[in-house]
Amino acid sequence: MRSFDEVLTCVDRLAEAFAARADQHDREGSFAFENVADLRAAGLPRLPVPATLGGDGFNLFQCVCVLQRLARADASTALGLAMHFHVVGSLAERCVWPEAAYARLCEEIVRDGALVNSAASEPEMGSPSRGGLPATRATRVAGGYRLNGRKSWVTYAPALRYFLVTATLEDAIGVFAVAGDSPGLTLIDNWGTSLSLRASGSFDVVLDDVFVPECWHVEQRAPGQARRGGPPAGWATCAFAAVYLGVGEGALYALARYAQQRVPTALGKPIAELPHVQRGIGQMDVALRAARAVLYTAAQTWAEQPARRAEMEADLAAAKYLCTNAAIAATDTALRIAGAGGLDRRLSLERHFRDARAGLMHPPQDDRALELIGKAVIAAIGA
Question: 48: closest CA among 35, 34, 60?
């Protein structure tokens, strides 16, 4: 089994390669299949798989550090891996799947670098975090189920071995692990011109009478019941936070390098020597440091003190809120300091600026996060 430091060294090498490719894929709105091949070759999909099942057994904090580093270079690739990590990591801690299905999933991840993500959002329903029954329907047939419906924003869709599709089944919600090569499953590439994360492959998925064997009906819950053991969603929340923290840090590093290299003839020295540039970079760094500290504390507490997880919803929400908004503020400041040069695609600042905005869409969204934090404060003061 690899050490944490060995993996981080490998991740830093991958990040250099991903950064070199990121602009082209962003320009084209194309999916970075070569990045997927590199992730698999490096064995990153197996990081959160339990060691007893052949994985590295990485905990939430360790996976957060991996995602943060990758997102500095390429947020689209980091988000795809984040989606996989939060599914696999959550199941490793509390497996609600049938034992045989979970074992087979882990086997394919370890052997092949298989990737998995949820397919829950729908055009009419919007974010599943806000509740509601899926319009996608599952019908019982001999040996399994037939699924019909359409899912939206399925990140990393071109690379997924399994889509975890939520579907209404007899007035409840079933979750089905649908193989990516299933007849009747079609990917709709309608994402590449979006504002943010253009290379993330966040496609629509159409299910037209797709057959799913009984053994891949992996979860069943009542409407409104939380997924995979219930809130708080430590893996998902921290994984999202790590990606957007990395985006903000990527902008910070890019701006610092630009400031050292930019020598206007009228100035005769690098703009990094100007006080207002130094103040702006300092402002970015302080905000990102604060967000990083809260995220690291939450992820380490989750990993090392399982008994506290049930009471951590506000802590997790604070980490997501701070990381997302620190990234948004940092990327905005970076463009202001860089001036017109920051709008040039040859500098990554405008991509980081756009990518950071996607953090507002991941749960818990800002309004919900602040509600959770406020309720926790009120309860603590009133106790």
Answer: 60
Residue 338's H or E segment, with its range, is helix 313-338
Q: Which amino acid is at 217?
A: H
What average pLDDT score do residues 62-86 get?
Answer: 98
Q: What angle do CA 74, 193, 190 make, to 5 degrees?
A: 105
Please give the helix or strand (H or E) that residue 130 lies within, else none: none
pTM for the predicted model, two decimal places: 0.96
Residues 6+ apart with CB under 8 A from 107: 53, 54
Gap between the Cα atoms of 165 and 175, Å rounded? 5
Q: Domains in the chain, please, with CATH?
A: 4-114 (1.10.540.10), 118-221 (2.40.110.10), 234-382 (1.20.140.10)
Which distant-in-sequence residues (6+ apart) come within 8 Å of 333 by Cβ?
Answer: 280, 283, 284
DSSP 8-state assignment for residue 362: S
Name the phi and psi angles at 222, rounded to 5: -80, 155
Residue in this structure with the two tokens 């899912």, named with its chain if needed: 151
> Could you tell me the CA-to-CA distances from 378 to 289, 309, 321, 371, 375 in Å, in that order?
27, 19, 19, 11, 5
Q: How far apart are CA 57 and CA 47, in angstroms?
A: 6
| CA distance linking residue 19 with residue 9, whole number of Å | 16
Task: Give percent above pLDDT 90 in the chain.
Answer: 91
